[in-house]
Specification:
The chain is an alpha/beta fold. It contains twelve helices and 17 strands.
């Protein structure tokens, strides 16, 4: 076992808490502005980067096509998309900051050493509004850590912060704690004695509380037991909860969750985007009792992922099954896990632990309706099917078990246009800043747009770092 020796402290002027894209952008920006910066990441080095590791694209406004994107995406179109997705419930002033600063996002990432995918390589889906990371989120995270290290940012892994002290509109101190390193990645043999810092400014970039099972149960009830956290387990929301108790202003609703349909065999935490289940329009979706509950053909756009996540949250036991026949399976998008399959329906029902008679009744009713499509000539189907589909008749038959996969919560800390955390009175805490998922509900208290969370992390991470450095200089 290694000795319990904490990393040397360098009296940071700016403390950044969290090592995903928001924290890394904050640390790099503050360091470039001349501040001494300590970044602490609660995860071990091999799992650094939070949910950013699972990202793949980011949204930005641009006036013309480029090597990264096709066509243009004007600022007013970005604003209209955001308004539509959130029903206009986001903060308009912060949305202007986000959209205006998003224009520089590709250049900022490239200058920081992050590789982006050129659309001419022919490996990308058509995208006019988002650019894609070459190598995905993990490659981006690795590049940003390398840049931060070269700039002289002090980085400490497996280090968590707690007990923020507020005095009026100022943060006066915060505790850090680190585990001993037993020599095996991820194992902890205890914690070093806590230490208290009083940096000139602090940037919170430590995400929401979606990795905190007790917190989820408190706000979402027993159904939270059936959720899978497809993001980092480090997002436990301890500082969020503590600061709200000390008078910080909340934004969003803790009961509102961004859920997508994921494979029920996924790990409890951190499965990422690859665990998504798609292909619902190609098959039949039933609950654990073999009962069909929703129209599989109604949703064809990218919003279908979140719609199915919300539906599964209301299924008994929060579990459902996408059923396909051999032809549907050939057409379905690739999945991380192979489907459960059987040569006939009764054996598939037994494999799923489902009542075979109930499943057969649903199956026969559905197939009869699909053979008689269009709906005006079909037998009654409840709920109806709004898009034509093939009957499921070709053996073998397959099933993907699905659960709601939690990505983030729509609950966090209110901030102003300088990314400063607000008190309940509306007054900002002058040396406490927030970026990324922790403050994203200011902009997106409901709904979502593809690539939005990486953009929020990048834009407000850079802004928070710049403002934190400006504060300590003054």
């Amino acid at each position: 076992m290694l000795a319990c020796v904490p990393a040397p402290m360098k009296s940071p002027q700016v403390l950044v808490i969290g090592g995903g894209i928001a924290g890394l952008c904050a640390a790099i920006s503050a360091r470039r502005a001349g501040a001494r910066v300590l970044l602490i990441e609660s995860a071990p080095r091999w799992r650094r980067g939070g949910n950013s590791r699972h990202g793949r694209n980011f949204r930005f406004f641009h006036d013309q096509p480029s090597a990264l994107v096709a066509g243009s995406y004007p600022a007013d179109e970005f604003a209209a998309d955001l308004t539509r997705a959130t029903d206009g419930n986001g903060d308009a002033a912060l949305a202007c900051v986000l959209i205006n600063r998003s224009r520089a996002a590709p250049r900022w990432l490239l200058e920081a050493g992050v590789a982006l995918q050129a659309r001419a390589r022919g490996q990308l889906p058509f995208s006019r509004k988002t650019a894609f990371l070459l190598g995905g989120g993990q490659a981006m995270v690795n590049a940003l850590y390398a840049r931060a290290e070269r700039l002289g940012v002090d980085i400490r892994y497996e280090c968590a912060a707690s007990k923020p002290r507020l005095q009026g509109n100022r943060l006066t101190g915060i505790d850090l704690r680190s585990p001993c390193q037993p020599g095996v990645p991820g194992e902890m043999a205890g914690e070093t004695p806590g230490e208290t810092l009083a940096p000139g400014a602090v940037v919170l970039a430590c995400g929401g509380a979606q990795g905190n099972a007790d917190w989820l149960r408190q706000h979402c009830g027993e159904r939270a037991e059936g959720f899978i956290n497809r993001g980092t387990p480090e997002a436990r929301g301890e500082l969020l909860i503590d600061l709200l108790a000390k008078g910080a202003q909340a934004v969003g609703d803790p009961r509102r969750l961004y859920l997508v349909a994921v494979d029920a065999r996924s790990p409890v935490d951190d499965g990422g985007i690859v665990t998504r289940i798609r292909g619902m329009p190609l098959g039949l979706v039933v609950d654990g009792d073999g009962r069909r509950r929703h129209d599989e053909g109604a949703d064809q756009g990218s919003t279908r992922y979140a719609l199915w996540g919300q539906r599964l949250a209301d299924y008994p036991g929060q579990i459902g099954y996408l059923l396909l026949d051999a032809e549907g399976l050939k057409a379905a998008p690739a999945a991380l896990y192979p489907p459960l399959s059987a040569p006939d329906l009764p054996r598939l029902a037994r494999l799923l632990g489902m009542d075979a008679d109930a499943l057969e009744t649903t199956w026969l009713t559905y197939n009869a309706a699909m053979r008689a499509f269009p709906a005006s000539h079909s037998p009654p189907l409840d709920p109806p099917r709004t898009q034509p589909a093939r009957p499921l008749a070709t053996s073998p038959f397959a099933a993907y078990p699905m659960r709601p996969g939690l990505t983030f919560t729509y609950h966090g800390l209110a901030v102003d246009t300088q990314a400063r955390v607000r008190l309940a009175s509306g007054e900002p805490i002058i040396n406490l800043f927030a970026a990324g998922t922790l403050m994203a509900p200011n902009l997106c208290p409901q709904g979502y747009l593809s690539g939005l969370m990486l953009t929020i992390g990048l834009v407000f991470g850079c802004l928070a770092g710049e403002e934190a450095a400006r504060h300590v200089r003054n």
